[in-house]
Design a protein that fits this description.
The protein is α+β, with helices and mostly antiparallel strands. It has helices at residues 2-43, 74-86, 147-154, 156-166, and strands at residues 53-61, 69-72, 94-102, 107-116, 122-134, 137-145, 171-176, 182-188. The strands form 2 sheets. Strands 2-1-6-5-4-3 form a 6-stranded mixed β-sheet. The radius of gyration is 27 Å and the shape is elongated.
Length: 196
């Protein structure tokens, strides 16, 4: 009798466990679909992907780039990480989905993106974002990417100056003074310079 009673409880617990697992799986699939819809809107220029962030999101940018770190809150993340990156771009990022999956805790977004930087260089990177969603909003995320490429993008002003001097050879000019000395000024050409 006691064995029969225990057996029935095992069946009940397994049933409840299956319901819980099924509910979690359904929630994760719903989160995955939410991310997929937002990514498609971003790709088509209809909305920004980060519109999906919760106001109190906890977001981490991995690596050691100028914007790598931990950001608490959507406003903080947008002002200190996203907007500085976008300001270095001449064209919008063109994104291409590689894969989108989910497990029992996270949605994993894998994509590549490309744009033209302000200095005319091509910026291209591949990203993996690990995200947790609640009620259709991203509450936490970690961005994995090639931070070397991101650092080049963020430091492009210095790179542009280097190219101007060493590669384009756009110097102000070279001239000989009255006393026979040769002058060669290594600065970007700003206009015509005359000497006596």
């Amino acid at each position: 009798m006691e064995l029969h009673f225990a057996y029935r409880w095992v069946i009940v617990l397994l049933y409840l466990g299956n319901i819980a697992c099924s509910t979690t799986a359904q929630e994760m699939k719903a989160s995955e679909k939410t991310v997929a819809r937002q990514f498609e809107k971003w790709k088509n220029g209809e909305a920004g992907f980060f519109d999906l962030l919760a106001d109190d999101v906890h977001w981490t940018v991995s690596g050691r780039s100028p914007v790598s770190g931990v950001y608490d809150g959507k406003t903080n993340f947008m002002e200190r990480a996203v907007n500085p990156i976008l300001s270095k771009l001449k064209t919008p990022l063109k994104s291409e989905l590689i894969s989108l999956t989910s497990d029992s805790s996270f949605v994993w977004l894998h994509f590549r993106a490309k744009a033209i930087a302000q200095n005319g260089e091509v910026y291209e990177n591949t990203y993996v974002w690990e995200m947790r969603l609640e009620n259709g909003k991203i509450t936490s995320g970690i961005a994995f990417l090639d931070t070397y490429e991101l650092a080049l993008l963020m430091n492009q002003q210095e790179k542009t100056m280097y190219r101007t001097i060493e590669e384009t050879k756009e110097y102000i000019g070279m001239w000989v003074t009255k006393d026979g000395h040769i002058r060669h000024e290594l600065l970007p050409k700003m206009g015509k310079r005359t000497t006596d």
